[in-house]
Amino acid sequence: MALSFSFGGLPVPPLIDRTTTACSSNNSSSSHAFDAAYIKRAAELADKSAGFTAPHPNLGCVVATTANGSGKGGRPGVVVGEGYLYAEGTSPAELQAVESAGELSRGATAYLNMEPGDCYSDRTAVSALVNAGISRVVIGIRHPLPHLRGNAIRALRSEGLKVDVLGEDIQSKTIEEALKSCLLVNAPLLFRAANRVPFSVLKYAMTLDGKIAASSGDASWISSKKSRTLVFQLRGRSDAVIVGGNTVRRDNPRLTARHGGGHLPRRIVMSRTLNLPEVANLWDVAEVPTIVATQRGAQKSFQKYLASKDVEVVEFDILNPKDVMEYFYDRGYLSILWECGGTLAASAITSGVIHKVHAFVAPKIIGGRNAPSPVGELGMVEMSQAMELIDVSYEQIGPDMLISGFLQPVPDLSPTIPSIEETSAVDPSVSPYESSIIFFYKTWDPYGAFSNFSPHAIRIPDENGDYFTWPSVEHYYQAQKFIGVTNPIAQTCLDEIKSARSPEEAARIGRKIQRQHPHLVRDDWESVKINIMYKGLKCKFSIYPHLNSMLLSTAGSVLVEASPHDLFWGGGRDGEGLNYLGRLLMQLRSEFLGDFSASHDQSATHQERKDELNRL
Predict the structure, then answer these.
(1) 616 close to 608: Cβ distance less than 8 angstroms
(2) pTM
(3) Fold that domain 420-598 belongs to in CATH
């Protein structure tokens, strides 16, 4: 007889009774079906974190006893633990899953939609699986970042665990479907890694006759309320929403993620001339920042006006979608939603930066010779030149139809030649980092541990000498802005920072209150913030030996935080920044090297004295 079950709304193939005799091909097929089902569940879990504290990979883990009954105390094929990574700096999915499973992890199989990334040399995810007694690991896809790809797989195999990678070690039609789910849940990361621009989605709503507004320009509302709610959710999964100047002038949008859950995406306006209204909803940055991208030298007086409203202005020599996306790639953006008009949409498509399209088609006809369409002139004169969507899906949303598809295939980042890191392991003369300048910024970079957002807790005394454990240096730094301030709002902010689930959230809370209520920030903040950062960094690099070794390994190199927009802590876009974070790290490196040298000299002197005594 067969036993069937389901979990999380995901159907699972029936389990074969152990007393049933079957040929090896049937056993293999059944095994693949189980692997596929659990990998799909891991991808489903991973998707729960999309957009909450982006950018970060979407990682899920399922721990299940195996179909032949191995797995201490568990029924055959039972899911005993699950977890997903909420954000960088929070508990790994693998650790959550094995902790949930407890003793049932021993001899079980762990299913991961993507290879875990080890940016910090602490191997938390790998160690969690090894220490829990997991016997087999099935991985959907390798990590897309070259300096992380394959590291965890090699580490797990070196510990004696059996590791299977979909499409490499396991192949079947069922597995192909599971592999697709792994690719889709991390499509933004894959596109970003392959193309070196953020994953960009073009969203628009149009009538049956292809209009996004009436001839008068009125566009409220083409789509239904259900469709608009879904748009809020799409915004909540994005790092930023981008529009052109025409949209600001015509619609005066807010571009918030109302009712959409997730985090609030930044708003980006692209305007070559800065012919924009002085009064606009986007200039209200109390809840979420706005960035205006423009051409160098455009309306300096209006730039000053925007600056007075705390709107960030970024100038480009020539304003075009490709350069703008490369800039936001450098700022670490993962996913951007384009809600622009037809002219900017056409420019973005021809620039090759649009990867996916969401088109809401409403059952309405409005007509109008001059009514705008969702995409402007692309230079195509024959139907054979039309761009066809890939992997198209259709979904009815209330009365509307949502048509979605990719303009470009999801990149295949399977390694075809050895990476520099793999070559370096064989030939030490090949170094992946030869530059005398070492740049760091995001936690997934090769030197991501230098970031304040890396998941390394610090225990440090406060002004009263009482010790408190902060989840990261960023938590500690942001909280110090409000230490000693008696205002209840400041105390509430301090409590929220202490309990923030990730460094990104701690930063958002601290920056928001500082922007909205500057009077709540301690009076001496500007004079003490460098010393506070130094104390936090010194604690971090003192208590984690592997981080200390990483810092010392950079001796002789200049350390630069590659933030293109932070001109105080970072190096700036064109090297114009003060780079105080890099300076402090180099100062600490010098101090640690001095301590190491002094200790080495003392040891050498002690040994010399011992040798002299032995000769006597």
Answers:
(1) no
(2) 0.79
(3) Tetracycline Repressor; domain 2 (1.10.357)
